[in-house]
Amino acid sequence: MRHIVHILLLVALVLVGCTRHRPSEKPPIHPNPNMDDQPRYDPQAPSEFFADGKAMRQPVAGTVARGRLNADPEFYTGKNADGDFIRVAPVTIDLELLKRGQERYDIFCGPCHSRVGDGKGIMIQRGYVPPPSFYDQRLVDTTDGYLFDVITHGIRNMPGYQYQIPVPDRWAIVAYMRALQRSKNATIEDVPLERRETLRQQ
Amino acid sequence: MAQLFPKWTNRIPLIVAVVVLFGGVAVVAGVWYYFSPEYTDVGYRPKQPVAFSHKLHAGELGMDCRYCHNTVETTAWAAVPPTSTCMNCHTLILPESEKLLPVRESYNTGRPIEWIRIHKVADYAYFDHGVHVRAGVGCYSCHGNIRKMEVVEQKEPLSMGWCLDCHRNPDPHLRPLDEVTNMEWEPSSDHAEFVERIKAERNIAPPEDCSGCHR
């Protein structure tokens, strides 16, 4: 009888130790470390060696990686050889590009400019400076190159996005902003003939 | 001559047998239970140097994961955002906040914030975010509902068994590409058809051979 009590106590003790999936602030301990942690640097790992504490080093200023010369100024800066903004984006605009632009716009611009581009995104309610609406005539009339430049370097109170958004995506966003502007100022003339009738009925 | 071994020693073989039997089972069970990453790793939730909340940024403010983890679709590494990404907003939002002091300090000195790493695959295994996200596996399948987490917590064991469970049958985890960061996505009723189509279209074939992950 006494043994049964002891065994039950033991079982209870083991079960009490069963704490799988319980949140813990302590770093995991691997009883058998294998080669889980090898003496190498992962991306973004800290380093004792360098003064700024980063294992990832910056390339020396002025270095150009193979295939990254970015020689085409229109595509990479939105300006032509004379330094003027180009009027039309140097990309072929198709549905795929617009879809890409929409997705990227919603991710990166939506928080401030709102999904429809009226400049009333959620960050504005939380205290950010209100941006202008994209439907302002000034922004409708401006060049594609200028819009590209705003995304790249930011403007006044708007941060630049050159490190977060790759160049082709920036052009996709520009194309999508143009689509937004057209949709707002669209008339029935912009709708294909065969669809007009259904629209009128709605 | 007195007895060299007292009488009770006759029971020694029995005791040894019982201890070995039960002890053996206990050791195996203990190792199975306590050495598994399910026990050691799941639930890891370190206190970060800045009280950054996914629940606020990704949940309440509705920011997309890719605003901050912007390399997740293209590279192996999902990248915790650099301080400059935070300062996109925090130059003007709560510029005086006490909680954001380390962020401003890092911005001014150029020394990165030392975020504590939570998820970690063993160094001898190869993992690539880009491949998974582009195949249509959502963040949710591997990280749980981050959008509800005040502090990020590891939800899955990241063990070999776990990887293989999905590689053998990825179907329930595949979704349309524009839903990968959606935490509330539910498979539609024609999910099976969708999976068939998408697998053929994107040529999805998760590796099960050793060299796929141990390369």
What is the secondary structure topology, with strand pairs?
The complex is a heterodimer of chains A (202) and B (215).
Chain A (H helix, E strand, L loop, with lengths): L1 H15 L56 H5 L17 H14 L1 H4 L8 H4 L11 H5 L2 H10 L13 H18 L8 H9 L1
Chain B lengths: L11 H23 L2 H4 L13 H7 L4 H4 L14 H8 L10 H9 L19 H7 L3 H5 L16 H9 L22 H12 L7 H4 L2
Helix pairs in contact in B: 5-6
Description:
Chain A is an all-alpha fold and 202 residues long. Chain A has a domain at 75-190: Cytochrome Bc1 Complex, Chain D, domain 2 (Orthogonal Bundle). Chain A contains nine helices and no strands. In chain A, helix 7 (144-153) crosses helix 8 (167-184). The longest helix of chain A has 18 residues, at 167-184. The mean pLDDT of chain A is 81. In chain B, helix 5 (83-90) packs across helix 6 (101-109). Chain B is 43% helix and 0% strand. Chain B has 215 residues and is mostly helical. Chain B folds into two domains: 12-39; 45-80 and 115-212, no CATH class. Chains A and B meet through helix 3 of A and helix 1, helix 2 and helix 5 of B.
Condensed summary:
With 202 residues, chain A is an all-alpha fold. Chain A is 42% helix and 0% strand.
Figure out the total of helices of chain A. 9
The SSE order of chain A reads: HHHHHHHHH
Q: Using the coordinates shown, work out and report the CATH topology of the domain at 75-190 in chain A.
A: Cytochrome Bc1 Complex, Chain D, domain 2
Helix content of chain B: 40-55%
Low-confidence stretches of chain B: none
Structural class of chain B, by secondary structure, is mainly alpha
How are helices and strands ordered from N to C of chain B? Answer: HHHHHHHHHHH
For the structure shown, list the relevant keywords:
heterodimer; A: 202 residues; mainly alpha; Cytochrome Bc1 Complex, Chain D, domain 2; 9 helices; 0% strand; B: 215 residues; 2 domains; 11 helices
